[in-house]
Amino acid sequence: MSFERELHKRSGSVCELSGASENLVVYEVPKSPKTGIDSHILISQTCITQIENPEKMDPNFWRCLNDSMWSEVPAVQVMAWRMLHRLKSEGWPQDLLDMLYLDDDMMVWANATGDGDDKEEAIKHLDANGVILQAGDSVVLIKDLDVKGANFTAKRGTHVRNISLVHDNAEQIEGRANGQHIVILTKFVKKS
To answer: For residue 117, what pLDDT is reported?
Structure first.
């Protein structure tokens, strides 16, 4: 029996993610620890287009995952988990993710592509103009700042070179002004 025929038999000749019955193709789930039929699913061309081109993704199309996430096929569960993570900002996918259980091995497989990484939640240090600051950048103070504990005022226009980022607070950076190591609020600087 051919590979594609086995997938058609397993899925009942419908897309294992959306339930569509037309334009079905074999899709290898990336980073699979298994081979053969266990690492493949049968999905529609519409699904493949949206998986491979996130900018073309229609969040409402993926409401079908409410059904397919309950599949007993690990490859289908992994793809459902990945797509729900990609759509997490929509709100409704988070409810489904809270219900979806993957054992440890499947969770490792699901996370292998980085779809579970919370890119939106990464701390970003932004200057007063919304420009992203990075360690080693130089900034200019846009306001006179009284420096507590050092008994001086850092004047507007002061250049602070080779800043470091406070990793747990997006509103603070560290640098040297007037020979003193100080903590500065990002809203009072602009990148130079």
So the answer is: 63
Task: For residue 10, give every residue at least 6 positions away whose Cβ sits within 8 Å of its Cβ, in sequence order, or none.
Answer: 16, 37, 42, 73
Show the tokens assigned to 98. 């809270």
Whole-number Å distance between alpha carbons of 35 and 2: 15
User: Do 157 and 143 form a contact (C-beta atoms < 8 A)?
Assistant: no
Match 């993926």 to its residue by tokens: 62
Mean pLDDT of the chain: 90
| pTM (two decimals) | 0.61
Residue 37: strand, helix, or coil: helix
Tokens standing for residue 9: 């038999």
Whole-angstrom distance, CA of residue 135 vs CA of residue 163: 6
Q: What is the pLDDT of residue 2?
A: 84
